């Protein structure tokens, strides 16, 4: 899939903001512990990806009712839905000097109510394009892996269910996703207001 940058300037994909707060001490310390500044960009990106995918459970898998949205909060509480985990991974990558943005898919549960799924795209030094990664977390039926050559995402959208890939690489979190995450008092409330499309 051909991805398009939301912002033409690549520096936008290294910036810190309220969501991808990679200047926060916890994000900086986590990035340092994972090898930022000592590993090559590919190895660091793969290590950061594995950390977010495997060491921070998806809140739906564990039944955790808390809703996180800021990268530092995801790392501190060690929980989040797909979009929150994507915020954490993008922040860790940016902390390590790897440009990273947010991507989205519209997915369904075999024809049930659709929802927006969050993932990231990164751009390694010397690369001419973006590579999407899905840090959601594996479980039976979900088998995502770090890869820059061939996408190995949690899900491939199925047109027959109205599922789609959104081709834009966002430099900042999509406003509809961020609004839902920030306003939800818990995960059941989040699902009631969570976007079904972008």
Automatic annotation (TrEMBL):
Gene3D superfamilies, A to Z: 3.10.620.30
Source domain of life: Bacteria
Domain Transglutaminase-like, residue spans: 29-135
Xref: InterPro entries: Papain-like_cys_pep_sf, Transglutaminase-like
Transmembrane feature ranges: none
PANTHER family given in the database record: BLR5614 PROTEIN-RELATED, CONSERVED INTEGRAL MEMBRANE PROTEIN
Protein name: Transglutaminase domain-containing protein
